[in-house]
Amino acid sequence: MTVEARAAFLAFFFVVWALVGLVPWLGVAVWRRGRGVVLALPLAPLAGCVGGVLVPLAGADDARGFLLSLAAAFVAGGAGTLAGVLLEERLAGPGS
Question: H helices of 1-96, where?
Fold first, then answer.
């Protein structure tokens, strides 16, 4: 496999993990009608990528590991969304 093919393969995984990490953010954005979720937007896909990368680094690098990494990306995206929402609420201050 060439270097370009390996890079494209790796980029595909990161795009998929980022998109899976955005799913919890999308649910929270719809639920809250878009209020207080802007700071969570960059955190959700970043956390999804981090969660997805941790599974193969732990040694699960087969098909089951890929599915597990998708679940980890979803959970990590939810955690990133929660962190962003809480950060935005804290920065907004009381009474906002």
Answer: 3-31, 40-57, 63-92
